[in-house]
Amino acid sequence: xxxxxxxxxxxxxxxxxxxxxxxxxxxxMGKAVIGQKHMVNALLIALLSNGHILLEGVPGLAKTxxxxxxxxxxxxxxSRIQFTPDLLPADIIGTMIYNMPTNQFMVRKGPIFSNFIxxxxxxxxxxxxxxxxxxxxxxxxxxxxxxxxxxxxxFMVLATQNPLExxxxxxxxxxxxxxxxxxxxxxxxxxxxxxxxxxxAVNDSFGKINKVISxxxxxxxxxxxxxxxxxxxxxxYIVNIIFATxxxxxxxxxxxxxxxxxxGSPRASINLALAAKAYAFIKHRGYVVPEDVRACCYDxxxxxxxxxxxxxAENITADNIITEILNRVEVP
Length: 332
What we know:
Elements: H1 5-18, H2 21-29, H3 37-49, E1 53-56, H4 63-74, E2 78-82, H5 89-93, E3 94-99, E4 104-109, E5 116-120, H6 127-139, E6 141-144, E7 147-150, E8 156-161, H7 174-177, E9 182-185, H8 191-203, H9 215-226, H10 232-246, E10 260-262, H11 266-282, H12 290-301, E11 306-307, H13 309-313, H14 318-328
Parallel strand pairs: 1-8, 1-9, 2-5, 5-8
Antiparallel strand pairs: 3-4, 6-7, 10-11
Helix pairs in contact: 3-11, 10-11, 11-12, 12-14
């Protein structure tokens, strides 16, 4: 892909204008979600890229509040589904019920028919329930009885996992993890943010979230994100990063060969490119730079890299592997 300088400058000016609403959304979300800028950015990246997020963090870190605030700022429908071991697929997608007065079966749609879905503690539900949700995520449609129903767009799932308790859970298989665009790990807020959160909660002084954009405008923004310019060198950089997870020895990374059981799938390169474009859009830029790729790399790759028992025995994480790769692969 080649474009001359004047075309890129014109595109950059257009993207800067079309991405102005990002500041409005972050300002509205900032009324309720204090700190956690990385999580807010990840939500916006997934929203603009038509992706879904797997969020890992201890309870009480504003995961529910963040996606609910985002849905309020966009004037969209929000559903929260608490995943439990006794949940059934019909509890999510809906079911057919018998209507006695009419002597007919009718469809009762489930909570999946919303724009934003919070799948709370997704690893608490059995595989059949998880797969029902993931099918809806992938196909953007649900089949109830003999009829298929399209889900409303924008449609985004924020699934959470509690890293503390693993008893009685059903971990997501690798093939299902791969369907999430990003896995975001969030930590506790810093001291200053914690103090503001405490004061606002005690005084009940969190601001009201106002609608600043419509769902239709989000769909329009997605088209703008795809038009963000990505140079051939950046594309090669992304491919090199992904191939370094599959064949690290070709990139002088022999020491991580025994630590990796498998690398990123083609979904990894696709999602890394989409995330980098969305990140550039959030930064009001019409072109992707290597820093955009590096900023999204951990979230896109950490759940797509398989670690061996040797890596786990040495307490080496996927993030450690990604750091090694980013330090080794040549930056354009």
